Each structure stands twice: as C-alpha cells, then as structure tokens.
Amino acid sequence: MLKEKIEQANKEAIEKLFKAQPTLIGLGTAEQDIPNMNKKTILHAGPPVKWEKMSGPLKGAIMGGLIYEGLAKDEEEAIKLAESGEITFDSCHHHSAVGPMAGVVTASMPVWIVENTTFGNKAYCTLNEGLGKVLRYGAYSEEVIERLNWIEKTLAPVLKATLALSGPIDLQTMIAQVIQMGDEGHNRNKAGTSLMIRELAPYLVQTSFDSQVKSDVLTFMHGNDHFFLNLTMPAFKSSLDPLENTPYCTLVYTMARNGTEFGIRVAGIGNRWFTAPAEVIDGLFFPGFTKEDANPDIGDSVICETAGAGGFAMAAAIPIVQFVGGTPQDAINFTKSMYEITQGENASFKVPVLDFKGTPTGIDIRKVVETGILPVINTGIAHKDAGVGQVGAGLVRPPMKCFEEALEAFAESVGIS
Amino acid sequence: MSKINELFDSELKVINLGLESFSDDLKLQKKAVVHVEWRPVAGGNKKLSSILNQL
C-alpha cells in the first residue's frame, strides 16, 4: 500500500514538472520584486549558513554586495557590518530565487522574473556578469563593483525596455531547443545565449536608447557564453517549486550548495534541508591554479541537474568535456548512469545521440541510496579565498549523507523506522 | 576431457562482479572481460536496506 502511494506520488510529481511552462515575463529589482527582501537582507546560494561558517567566495561576494549597496565603503567596513548582526542572511531558495556560485542577491540588483504559467508561481535570478573576476565567484574589486553598476544602470533598463516590446518569452521551448544544440543549460550555455540574443535583438534595436548603449548591451551578451545560465536557473526553479509538499513523494526538488555545505530538499518532506559538507570539484583549472586553490562546491546552479539538465544532459552537450574534463564517451556514460536514479525520461529535453531519448529526470532518494550512484554535476570552481574569482570548471557529486538522512526522515514521516 | 578442461581450452568470456582488480588482472593477460560495477544495496547498511525494503 505504501509502495503504491509513493509510486503514485512520484508519478504525479514528475507530471507536474513536465507540465511546467517557465516564461520570462520581465525584469525587476530584488527589493521590489523578490518576496520579503529589503535593503538589509542579503540572499545567498545553498542552504542557510551563518557568516562565521561561510566560505571565502561567499564572504567575498557578500563584502562586494555591501560595497555595491553603499552600506560599506571598503573591505574592512563590510566585514564589520557583516559580523555586526545588522544584516539578515538567508537562502535564495527561501525567497523564490536562485543564484549561481555565491548567489549573492542584494536589494538594488536587477532580477529576471520568470513565471511558471501553468501553476502561477514565480522565480527570480540576477543577471549574469560573465566569467573570471566577478562577484558570484567571490571577487569584489573596483572593476567588479563597476560592472555591477553598469548592469544596474545600463544593461537592465535596456533589457527591461526590450522585454516590454517583445512580450513574454517561452523559456521551456527555448531550453528544449538548446539541449539539441549542444548546451546542457548549466555549464554550457552558448546556444542558449545565442538564441536569447536572436529573440531580443529585433526589439532591442527599437528601444529609444543611444546606438552606442544598444551596441554595448549586445556586445556584453555576445561576450558572455553564460548569459543564459541566469535564465535556465529560474526557469528550473519555477518548474520544480510546485513539487514542494507532495505527500509520499521521494523525489528531490532542490539541490543547492553554499560553499560550505551541500543541501537537498525532498518533495514529500516539505522545505526541510538535509545537508553535509560540500565536496571538492575534480576538473580543469585555469593556468596558474590547481586543486589546492579550489573552494568546495558552491552555487544554486545545481537546480539544473535537479530538473534533468546540466550533468544529466551531458550526452547532449559533448563539447563540454573540453571545459570540464573527460572524453565524449564519458559524457554519454554520465547521462546513461543517471537513468538508474531518476523517475523517468524528460518529456521536453531530448538527447539526439541517445535516439532522442528524454534526459533522466526526477532524482529519487530511494534509488540513490539503493544503488550508491550519486547525481553528477557540471560546475564552475571558485577560489577558496575571498576576492579572487573563478579558477576552473569540472564535475562533482553531492555527499551521500544528504540522501541517507533524507531517506531516514522520509521513512519516519510515513511511520517506518 | 572433463567439462572444465573444455571450458579452459575455449576462448574465455568473463563477466566480473565486485572487485575491479580481478578484471584488471584478466585484462593484463589480454583476456576479454566485462566488469560490472556491482555494490550491495545501500552500500551494505542494514538499517537503510531495511527501510528501502519497506518503501
């Protein structure tokens, strides 16, 4: 009887996920649009974490955020303020938001607004800053703050005006397309960024901004292959959130890391986090950096894998092995192995090289614990110290402890010990 | 000739379960072998295994 209830709940949950219609409906600001957000609140990636326990890149991004908001004038003041208890730190996931790497969101930051039009829930994400020395990797130097200001004062107004002309943009169809164009939506977003530019450009040129400004905006998007990541993430977040509180469901609807801990949430156990120390990433490092420089796994971008993209769709994104390491056959094997721990084949994301089979989707904690196969995640690598930035990219797995403890809690919740 | 000798006189086709080093040894002797990554349920954890049986 219990087994049937679980099977039925999981079936309904995956259908809910496949019915999701994430749609880009506009661009706002964190303080105005994100629920329960204010000037003294800073959101971050992963499960909740106190300042004292935060990793270097997260601390660095928070320091940068405080400087950007004008709440601190330098590093020293920012640390003092962060330690004072005056600032509320909270998980992006508690505010319908997601953030790549450190995932820091402060009040003035512009945010994409994505609505899952099937269920009416929204998700938010900041605009992607590019690679290298950027806030989300823990850098906070003058050039980082200058870029954030340019995003707020130039990029966001232009894109907002563009979206007002274009109307809503269907992200579900676009993501399904890019998965057939060599992207996996997490660490490879070249096709997605290109499609988004193609979608926006005809309207962007109709806005009343100066030609040079329009050119700068298009050049910025063109120069940043990860621009689309900050749209796949809220798309997946809005698609997965309706699964929360599905009684008897053993599927994972959140995976996230704060640089110190990895956390998961399971649909049948509400919004409780199951956490364990985050793992160190195995990958390719930029010249001059090694594994010794790497911070443990960080960021909300693993929402991609939770939704059947990212590492789960690697067979669709074979060129990514040049960025994260491994061979084309490894990419195919990673995707194939994920069918062992998932509920089903994705209804929209199809892998050409696997005869257009849907990507493995819906991580089942029972299957993970039973087989010992952990989800595979494509990710960027941040330097362990605040202020440095990205040092590479690679593959990582979550700690098994999260899944084991979630399984025990689930069993308890249904009266089994 | 006994059945077992017949087996060793023919070309061996080996499927190895469990410890991978057994298959590595056969590979060193240039014998065809397929290694199956088999692990006990829940890594052998009895409590988790019992929970899984009920779910």
Structural class of chain A: alpha+beta
Whole-Å distance between the termini of chain A? 17 Å
**Helical residues, percent of chain A:** 25-40%
Radius of gyration of chain A: 20 Å
Q: Give the quaternary arrangement of the chains.
A: heterodimer
Shape of chain A: globular
Main beta sheet of chain A: 4 strands, antiparallel
Name the strands of the widest sheet of chain A in spatial order.
Answer: 5-4-1-6
Query: The CATH topology of chain B is what?
Result: Rossmann fold
CATH level-1 class of chain B: Alpha Beta
Helices of chain A, by number, come to 14
Instruction: Give the integer mean of the pLDDT values of chain A.
Output: 96
Question: What is the string of SSEs of chain B from the N terminus onward?
Answer: HEHEH
Q: Compute the average pLDDT of chain B.
A: 89
β-strand amount of chain A: 15-25%
Number of helices of chain B: 3
Strand and helix order of chain A: HEHEHHEEEHEHHHHEEEEEHHHEEHEEH
The helix fraction of chain B, in percent, is: 40-55%
Q: Show unreliable segments of chain B.
A: none
Main sheet specs of chain B: 2 strands, parallel
Q: What do you see in this structure?
A:
The complex is a heterodimer of chains A (417) and B (55). In chain A, 38% of the residues lie in helices and 20% in strands. Chain A contains 14 helices and 15 strands. Chain A has a four-stranded antiparallel sheet. Chain A has a four-stranded antiparallel sheet with strand order 9-8-7-11. Chain A is globular and about 65 Å long. By secondary structure, chain B is of the alpha+beta class. Chain B has a two-stranded parallel sheet with strand order 1-2. At the A-B interface, helix 1, helix 13 and helix 14 of A face helix 3 of B.
